[in-house]
Amino acid sequence: MRLVEAPDQTRRSVDEKNLHHVWSRVEGVIGWLCTTNHKEISLRYIITAFGFFCAAGVLALLMRLQLSVPNNRLIGPDLYNQLFTVHGSTMMFLFAVPVMEGVGLYLVPLMIGTRNVAFPRLNALGYYVYLAGGLVLYGGLFCNIGPDTGWFSYVPLAGPDFSPGKRVDFWAQMITFTEISALIAGIEIIVTVFKQRAPGMSIDRIPIYVWAVLITAFMVIFAMPAVMLVSTMLAMDRMSHVATHFFNVAEGGDALLYQHLFWFFGHPEVYIIFIPATGFVSTIIGTFSRRPLVGHSALVLSLIATAFIGFGLWVHHMFATPVPILGRSFFTGASMLIAIPSGVQIFCWIATLWTGKPVWKSPLLFVLGFFAIFVLGGLTGVMLASVPLDLQVHDTFFVVAHFHYVLIGGAVFPLFGAFHYWFPKWTGRMLDEGIAKLTFWLMFIGFNLTFFPMHQLGLEGMPRRVYTYHANLGWNGLNMAASIGAGVMGIAVLCFLYNVLKSRRSGVIAGNNPWQAPTLEWATTSPPQPYNFLYQPTVNSMHPLWFDRPNQPFVVGLKTDRREVLTTTLLHAVPEHIHELPEDSCWPILLTVVISGTLLGVIFNPWPFVIGMIPMYIVLFAWFWRDIDLKHLGRAK
Amino acid sequence: MMRCISPFLLAALLVSGCASNHSAVAPASREAHAISSLWWQFFWVLGIIYILVVATVLICRFKSRRDRANINLPQPADSIPGESKTHRVIAILTGVSVVILLGLLVDDLFASRVLAPKNDPGALNLTVTGHQWWWEIEYGDQDPSKVFQTANEIHIPVGRTISFTLRSPDVIHSLWVPSLHGKKDLVPGHPATLVLRAEKPGIYWGQCAEFCGAQHANMGLLIKAESASDFAVWEDAARKSAVAPMTDQQKHGQQIFLNSTCVMCHAVSGTIAGSHNGPELTHLASRQTIAAGTLPNTRENLALWIQEPQLVKPGARMPGTGLQPNDLADLLDYLQTLK
């Protein structure tokens, strides 16, 4: 292994042919199911998550239809409660987190200049387990046994006494599925970023988006176990064969314990969704302002500060419960403190736009929408940090407005910006700019029409999670406005889908780097080859495509007859050794089948847990047995 | 553009909402006043910040209106002139943000002091128990014979401290009457206290604010704040047992009540009906609503509620009775005497 400036043409075409043979997958359905290419898996993550986004959007439209007029009898309480539970659970567990992970798993290896993620088979397992979890939840909903106790499933309401049947068990098990998947993605990203960066990409040259994804991955690893723990405790309380009493007040259990554990996950969750989105915002602003970001270090440190403080303010979701006053004041202080790193980021972004020469393409337009919406959501967040104000608006439509401003403004607008920004890299074609602008305006207007009136509804006393309301309370007009706005947002999403389908076939060919962007993912073809880079690049700055010498050396000498990647040191990214990645494999999907069967069975009876262990060990044995893989089953001909 | 004016739009809407009896910004108690004035302070400070941020972004937008592919290769940050000045501006703005947040924090702590429970020996002690999906209210007294219960409608005297003890035997509920106070959760196993002092007479609407199951939406209550003398009159009446039925129809109605499943859950003092699984009915006819704020208390609604409760409030614990029309009429005659 050595570094050279540019291999000659004959050598290039030989290497290209060999790499293509080694890295591309076996044709056909089996090859499709067994692939471990991070780009294919990530696109599946993104498409699946977007599918769940649309499904949960349809549920939201049904809710808005029900609430558009008072005393509506269209949807009864039983169905309505399932709708908002599945809507919330989907958006949090099946859309927001997986889509951010999907985009991250696609871009991180490209941005740091490597060929695949560190554990390709584990990555495939993560996707399939996530898909299974989503299908479990929607299977329940379609059989009218969808969960109906809210995405938070507070006890005692979600306990065995007040929610008999299997509805809540489906919810609790969906959590287990999705959190296994989230933890896998977190580990995947940390190891890949730590060990596989291109030579020269020392820790101070890591692109800001990679930082955002890395910090999120750490948050996932610390936050997700809390929710897996609490949902499993809930499932054990509910299971008649086990019947623990963690939350059974009559047996010395505690209802508030549940809330503490849930929100210890639940608040960081918001930042797990938001921090990758700040990575999109930083990347898009940097590229289109035509300058390096103002205050790169301040931005990275703000993200790290947000990640730390994000774990210290969960009690602000519980201000109305009987928690001690002094404790509440502490959490007020912490909740206000987190506004400071967010403020620093906003200042840095605006300064970049102000001092740069911005080019107003559609991705940047979505970032403008992000400013207008997210900042308002952040400021109402400061209001919610105050105990007295929170006591009034907590659990009302004001909070519904607040967190949709934060999550749609802070994550979905940047995500749509990111879709428009990276679509050329993913497909090789540009999205239509005119339809993109139409999508933006419909979404922006629809969003504000839907959620702005909800602030007022909350102040006027309309609680959340009500399936109907009286006509004489003065809430009719604002609810109708919100319902119309929701329809407009639905049209915006259809516009986007149309643009994707149309541009995928007939969009303008993008070329390697249509935006003249600085990071390594733009150094390769669009879409990238299965091996990402013909020769792994090296870097000499944070913006290699802007500032590196044209004759920046490449890594050569990795074997082209097997899947080799270069590992480098943690701090300085000095080449360390060569690591061989596994072939495509059928074990991830088989293990998913076993895990899914086990987890589904456990909803009804504890025995599948024991029985499921047997096939699980068999599959794991095969997984770790070096020579049982596709290379030996199919490819080696 | 639209986003800039909307805070003012909000302000205009809020002013128009001030006549409401269920609004956080139409306060009628010491506590709700403290919160409402805190709200307006936060509103103006944060509203101005919002306008400044969005205006700056819009200036960036119109300062440079390029959207054609006039893309140049950028300069490294350390060679951009004025970069250190930009850093200084960001540092100053961050400092200003810290100061503003500290100011808001102090403001918040002063408002919290007003809300902190104080020991007032003259306080009226009420216990509110949340049930799926109605409110049970007990007026406490030193003298056990003076303790009495009611449901879904609370009378309180203006100008006197009221101390609510909040309990729940089933799931978590939350008591929220926006014009009188913020909400407080009723968590099983964690009794809580809510203290308020109404300042303006009136009838205030509230409802459960923590999702509590199928009929969370129809778990309302009214708080009637009245002068001390009016309250004393009401309190005396509320302590009395139910009046005995007078006419034959009423007497027959009472027999239907006492011989049917009604008595499994409901109590009427002065009769053998003494169960507290459902709302106390001793003074049912004096209340404004039935089924926890779901329907106005009229004869037709009462008939509908008794015959078809699952139509009115699907999932409610009350079963339909299937009474014959003349029996129902007599029962209604009786219930309407329970003033």
Physical arrangement of strands within the biggest beta sheet of chain A: 1-3-2
- Count the beta strands of chain B: 12
The amount of beta strand of chain A, in percent, is: under 5%
Largest sheet of chain B: 5 strands, mixed
Count the DSSP helices of chain B. 8
Give the number of domains of chain B. 3
Helix content of chain A: 55-70%
Number of helices of chain A: 20
Helix and strand run of chain B: HHHEEEEEEEEEEHHEEHHH
Largest sheet of chain A: 3 strands, antiparallel
Q: Estimate the mean pLDDT confidence of chain B.
A: 90
H-E string of chain A:
EHHHHHHHHHHHHHHHHEHEEEHHH
Descriptive overview:
The complex is a heterodimer of chains A (637) and B (339). The two termini of chain A are 28 Å apart. In chain A, the strands form 2 sheets. Chain A has a 3-stranded antiparallel β-sheet, with no helix packed on it. In chain A, strands 4-5 form a two-stranded antiparallel ribbon. Chain A is 65% helix and 3% strand. In chain A, helix 3 (38-67) runs parallel beside helix 5 and helix 7 (208-238) runs parallel beside helix 9. In chain A, a hairpin with a 6-residue loop joins strand 4 and strand 5 (575-580). Chain A is mainly α and 637 residues long. Chain A is globular. The model of chain A has no long low-confidence stretch (mean pLDDT 93). Chain B is of the alpha+beta class and 339 residues long. Chain B folds into 3 domains: 28-67 and 83-116; 124-239, Cupredoxins -  blue copper proteins (Immunoglobulin-like); 248-335, Immunoglobulin-like, CATH 2.60.40. Helices cover 38% and strands 17% of the residues of chain B. Chain B has 8 helices and 12 strands. Chain B has helices at 2-16, 30-63, 83-115, 228-239, 248-259, 299-307, 309-312, 325-335, and strands spanning 124-131, 134-139, 148-151, 153-157, 162-167, 173-175, 184-186, 192-196, 202-207, 220-226, 289-290, 295-296. In chain B, the strands form 4 sheets. In chain B, strands 3-2-1-5-8 form a 5-stranded mixed β-sheet, with no helix packed on it. A 3-stranded mixed β-sheet of chain B has the order 4-10-9, with helices on one face. In chain B, a hairpin with a 2-residue loop joins strand 1 (124-131) and strand 2. In chain B, helix 1 runs antiparallel to helix 2, helix 2 (30-63) packs antiparallel against helix 3 and helix 5 crosses helix 8 (325-335). The longest helix of chain B is centred in the N-terminal third of the chain and has 34 residues, at 30-63. Chain B is elongated, with a radius of gyration of 28 Å. Chain B starts with a helix and ends with a helix. Chains A and B meet through helix 4, helix 10, helix 11, helix 12 and helix 13 of A and helix 1, helix 2, helix 3 and strand 9 of B.
